[in-house]
Amino acid sequence: MSLARGDEVAVITGVRLTGADRTDPFGDDAVDVHLRDGVIVDIAPAGALPARGAVVDGSGGWLVPGLWDHHVHTVQWALTAHRTALGDVDSAAEAASVMGRAPVLDDGRRVGTGFRDAFWADVPSLALLDEKTGDVPTYLINADVHSVWLNSAAFSRESFVPTPDGILREEPAFEISRRLNDLDAGVVDRYVRGALDRAASRGVTGVVDLDMAWNADAWARRLAAGFDGMRVSFGIYPADLERAIAEGLATGDALDPHGLIRVGSLKVITDGSLGTRTAACSHPYPGDPHNTGVMTVGPDDLRALMVRATGSGLACAIHAIGDVANSHALDAFAVSGATGTIEHAQLVAHADIPRFARLGVGASVQPEHAIDDRDLTDSVWATQTALPYPLRSLADAGANLLFGSDAPVSPLDPWAAMAAAVHRTRDGRAPWRAEQGVTAATALAASTAGGSVTGSALEPGGVADVVVIDRDPLTASDADLRTTRVAATILAGRLTHVDL
Fold this sequence. Notes:
- The protein has 500 residues and is of the alpha/beta class.
- It is 30% helix and 22% strand.
- It contains 17 helices and 23 strands.
- The strands form 4 sheets. Strands 1, 2, 3, 4, 5, 21, 22 and 23 form an 8-stranded mixed beta sheet that branches.
């Protein structure tokens, strides 16, 4: 029987189970997993029970839970495929030249994305970008999305006052990104559907969507158009908090009868980023003795927001990258009684590591960032005394790790995230801060819906969000994890990807 996306699966045959928290008796033996009504109803030795209905032949592969990316900017990520890639440019001059040759999009703009200027020998300037790009409004979005480089035509189009270097940072940069993302809804939704289909091909069954927009209407619109390929939990930003409360939205509420799309957390961005040198830290940045980053939302305002959200049934997802920002976020969780996560937790004071578990605050982290930023961290944060990218320390202290990509900052690929978390390297380089690597079992669990503290065992009665893969992630090398082949992705018993 030939299977296709959308087919309901009754049995997955001939697969092996994996995970450190298993209680089943099967060991390395092949099993058949029987599904009904979106639930795992039985796990039996291969061939022991009749296989009725649509069958996925696991062919000796491994079965793991459906994977989640716990931090995605969905529209911005989907649009990167239609923008000029700048991740490989080595200088401001090269970036400006590339954008001078870039295609003009349907909205009359040129848009590039993914540049990393921290190690460029030259510096961006308005004059340089104007020279290479002329009268076409041109925008270059930093890989960390916390700054945007514009030419004069773009400043004029957006009615912003030009800066000498042509760069807008933090909230002005976010506003530019919001405007660039505000395209025809039909076009955007088509791009989003395509991007999430690609995520399903990597075994992803759920994402946390943290687009800087009113996401409730966007996902209701996509549902009405037939979207059914992914579980989504969407964020709400402070500008829309009162609207969310007025509309009665609470974390966990479903927008559809099947519970695919749910209300997520209040997302608050409290500091900047490493690459833009705006993450709020306890020690100054090198060569800039007065710069310790910025708190874009101060402690008092943060507490007020979190108290308001908590009293209205909303969890909180607090962006905190520098150690000062993480301390303030944990203080606010303690005072407000809020539930939720700290997003990023890239630099954490030693004394704050155990507070995550004590307060029940999840650490929503992006392991590939550690590999992307290893050289930058060793340079820009060389004088910091807090722990950078402390995955193992957080896990050992009992914190719940929840892995993501922050796409488009890093590619949306859970296997790359797991590889980075376990092996702390990429492309054959020596591991970076190897002592902060976590076990493969922890990494797999952190890539599922519940995070590292829930484990990754599959049992009868569990939701039938599962993935058939060609290798055991608990024993795979860095390269093998990154090249994991996904044969089938199954969401509530229904195929969202098949490559058998």
